[in-house]
Design goal:
This protein is 40% helix and 15% strand. By secondary structure, the protein is an alpha/beta fold. Bound molecules: 3-methyl-2-oxobutanoic acid.
Length: 298
């Protein structure tokens, strides 16, 4: 008899004819320790923190070995669901994608974004929503966009046991007030305001702060000013870590912002694969014998 257990890679099963070996191996694979908020906080000024967004189970399984932190970003609304911005993203969407990412990752810290409208008002409502995300996904922290009023809520959540990552600079959830996705920190007023927001976010107890779309001097000033690691996106090499929207860096779109480096051309690859499949179906080359079931010989 073969004893089977699921390995951390999705769809992969391992087996052994020795039940004790199977039990111990399964336990070993399960007991990989996840990176947690204090581990990330301790990386300030040290080895750069590697982060990517992840929204689905198979992609999370691939990134898990490579990244320190996986962000289930509310960018999922634009990237996966085709929304024009992140304002329409719901708590239920974040929970569903958070669950998928948690199911196939073992080692990387998983942070789930709190969507627009779920935390900016009453801190008690923010707490209920954050607790729901934590309970229903099993993630290690939530992220909020820290405008001028949000640091009080960060403090409220952290005091009650919820690790929080902040997010300053370009705040995509404020796109309708800002009138577009524009780089920040290029004027003295804006620099002063964003630096103050970063200070308030850090003082409120955030374990790390995403710094998005700001000019390099401001990113360096924030990184120097706060004791927590900064995670940059479009914020120069002056941050303690970096994050990109994974679909951008994998080349799934024909346009990407200036700060994205494309490490693959998945749009081209997928297009080529779909065309090859279509040509095979039309020419009756697919399915072939290798892809066909036949009757058992009696
Ligand atoms: O939602 C997201 O993907 C983010 C990153 C841009 C940091 O917040």
């Amino acid at each position: 008899m073969l004893w089977r257990w699921r390995s951390p890679s999705p769809g992969r099963w391992k087996s052994s004819s020795n039940p004790q070996e199977a039990f111990l191996s399964a336990q070993r694979e399960e007991s990989v320790r996840r990176i947690a908020a204090p581990d990330i906080a301790a990386r300030k000024g040290g080895e750069p923190i590697v982060c990517l967004t992840a929204y689905t189970a198979p992609v999370a399984a691939i990134f898990d070995d490579v990244c320190d932190l996986l962000l289930v970003g509310d960018s999922v609304g634009m990237v996966v669901h085709g929304l024009p911005n992140t304002v329409g993203v719901t708590l239920e969407m974040m929970i569903l994608h958070g669950q998928a990412v948690m199911r196939t990752s073992r080692r990387a810290m998983v942070v789930v974004d709190m969507p627009f409208g779920s935390y900016e008002g009453d801190p008690r409502v923010a707490y209920d929503n954050a607790a729901r995300i934590m309970k229903e996904t099993g993630c290690q922290a939530v992220k909020v966009e820290s405008g001028p009023t949000v640091p009080d809520t960060i403090h409220y959540l952290v005091q009650r046991g919820i690790p929080v990552m902040g997010h300053v600079g370009l705040r995509p959830q404020a796109v309708l007030v800002d009138g577009g996705f524009k780089a920040k920190g290029r004027t003295e007023d804006e620099r002063t305001r964003i630096l103050a927001e970063a200070h308030a976010t850090a003082d409120a107890g955030a374990f790390a702060v995403v710094v998005e779309g700001v000019a390099e001097p401001l990113a360096r000033d924030i990184t120097a000013a706060i004791a927590q690691p900064t995670i940059g996106i479009g914020a120069s090499a002056g941050c303690d870590g970096q994050i990109l929207v994974s679909d951008d860096m994998l080349g799934l779109f024909d346009w990407t912002p200036k700060f994205v480096r494309r490490y693959a051309d998945l749009r081209g690859e997928i297009g080529r694969a779909a065309s090859a499949y279509a040509a095979d179906v039309r020419a009756r080359r697919f399915p072939g014998e290798a892809e066909t079931y036949f009757s058992k010989k009696s």
